[in-house]
Fold this protein.
Amino acid sequence: MQYQKIAPGLQVLLEDFQQQGFAGLTRHMNRLGVIGVENSPKPPRTVVFIRCEENASFGHLAQLGVRVNQLQGTVRTAILPITSLDPLSDEPTVQRIIPSRYLPCFPCGKPLSLDMGM
């Protein structure tokens, strides 16, 4: 595992999961893009941003459950099992793995309108 490539928040998430199992994820679920249900056949997953080389290929990581959403670009999004952070960080084309974060709700409870009156 290349710890210098993994953002601190993801390192804490991974450590909590390794030490406490699913219970270690609960404090991260409202903050980071963590998806999982206890006793589910699917492993807990997280949504991340990947800084990588423009034409990096990640198809070979699909067998580990890593799904990168773009085929090219220096910043991409991905969803992967938390345990797959290790092999993703070992990829030579990856510079950084950053957690996605949930945005806070607006106080009025209404969705943001992009209508500029035009």
